Amino acid sequence: MPSPRLTVVVTRRLPEPVETRMKELFDVRLRDPDVKMTRDELLAAMQSCDVLVPTITDQIDAGLIGQAGDRLKLIANYGAGVDHIDVATARSRGILVSNTPGVVTEDTADMVMALIMAVTRRIPEGIASMASGKWEGWTPMAFLGSRLAGKRLGILGMGRIGQAVARRARAFGCQVHYHNRRRVRPEIETELEATWWESLDQMLARMDIVSINCPHTPSTFHLLNARRLKLMKPTAVVVNASRGEVIDENALTRALRAGEIAGAGLDVYERGNEINPRLREEPNVVLLPHMGSATIEGRIEMGEKVLINIKTFADGHRPPDQVVPGMM
Hints:
Elements: E1 7-10, H1 16-25, E2 27-29, H2 39-46, E3 51-53, H3 62-66, E4 74-76, H4 87-92, E5 96-98, H5 105-120, H6 123-132, E6 152-156, H7 160-171, E7 175-179, H8 186-192, E8 194-196, H9 200-204, E9 209-212, H10 226-231, E10 237-240, H11 249-257, E11 263-266, H12 277-280, E12 285-287, H13 296-314, E13 322-323
Parallel strand pairs: 1-2, 1-3, 3-4, 4-5, 6-7, 6-9, 7-8, 9-10, 10-11, 11-12
Antiparallel strand pairs: 5-13
């Protein structure tokens, strides 16, 4: 007789091809309606399934993992970031954690460049002027921004996404600089014509644009704090499509209001979907609703990676995208 199918719980709606394939392979419980699970719902799911498929909005902390049922053996995260999952506690309970790395690299890098263009060329202000019906025609001094060619771009975090941003920035004529925990290989530096800075402080003081592309870890929390924002040039802008916790938002707001930096473009926020109201008031800030990886292609590819991780586990093998504490 065939072995019983794994029971899989998905916490949010996924693209139709992904959900359909899950139904074909597993005993899956899909989410309907598409709203965030409550903590009690997450706990009930974790006590009754073999595999949980959460997203970044689900906080899978030590308390939940400690109360999980003995059946739960895999948390197959739908997304690359796993800072919302207590991986160490899961590991201590014999629960594997997997993610979907590499899928959203190009999409997120595209969005970084879109934010850079939006802030430096004042695109939202132009759109608002047209939408209001108040535009009275071209004038030499209206909506003046700054060109990208020749600007110094400082990339904070030179992983997959940071390198993809660098390639795009080079095409726009930017000079690429970066700060990373470890210097990248010489051939990558040569390809990207990138300059490495061991000191983040020294890099920040010299950049025209700063792009945050590092994960959120205890060591990167508020990495861009009030002291470091004061190091930046008053003409510089900062963009973040990585993790909101890397920037101290209160310090960022103060710096913007004081004219210590020229602008900011944000796709992620320190408190999730609770946007600092003072950021909404700043005319030189572009805010997006976490759209960095929001492409049809990317979402389907993420789902395909989740499917591969679960199917590999079901076949008695280690998921190819298993996450262990030392990786973070």
